[in-house]
Amino acid sequence: MLERAPLTSEIVSRWAPTFAQEALAPLLQQRAATRLEVETVGNELQSRLEITVRLYGRDGARIFDERFAAVWQQIG
């Protein structure tokens, strides 16, 4: 969805977390996890967006914790 959008603070703080949460919502709906945390950090100099996803189980223990990086390819 954001492939052609510039890496701006609005993308990093608003849209990327929203899209990640929507994409992972089925894990909560199917009760594979009880809580979801998404953290995003943008690095405009490297045109890179880092998304950290954490999932928690019924007992509150963290069951998944991973950082993903997407490189922004600006289309000129």
Folded structure, characterized:
This protein is α+β, with helices and mostly antiparallel strands and 76 residues long. The protein is 28% helix and 37% strand. A 3-stranded antiparallel sheet has the order 1-2-3, covered by helices on one side. It is elongated and about 40 Å long.
Notable traits:
single chain; 3 strands; alpha+beta; 76 residues; three-stranded antiparallel β-sheet
Q: Summary?
A:
28% of the residues lie in helices and 37% in strands. A hairpin with a 4-residue loop joins strand 1 and strand 2 (48-56). By secondary structure, the chain is α+β, with helices and mostly antiparallel strands.
Low-confidence stretches: none
Overall mean confidence score, pLDDT: 90
Described by the principal axes of the CA atoms, the overall outline is: elongated
Biggest sheet: strand arrangement: 1-2-3
Helix content: 25-40%
In N-to-C order, the SSE pattern is HEEE
Structure summary, number of beta strands:
3
What is the count of helical runs?
1
- Main sheet attributes: strand count, strand direction, barrel closure: 3 strands, antiparallel
Structural class: alpha+beta
End-to-end Cα distance, whole Å, is: 18 Å
Rg estimate, integer Å: 14 Å
Give the amount of beta strand, in percent.
35-45%
Helix and strand arrangement:
Blueprint: H1 9-29, E1 35-43, E2 48-56, E3 62-71
Antiparallel strand pairs: 1-2, 2-3
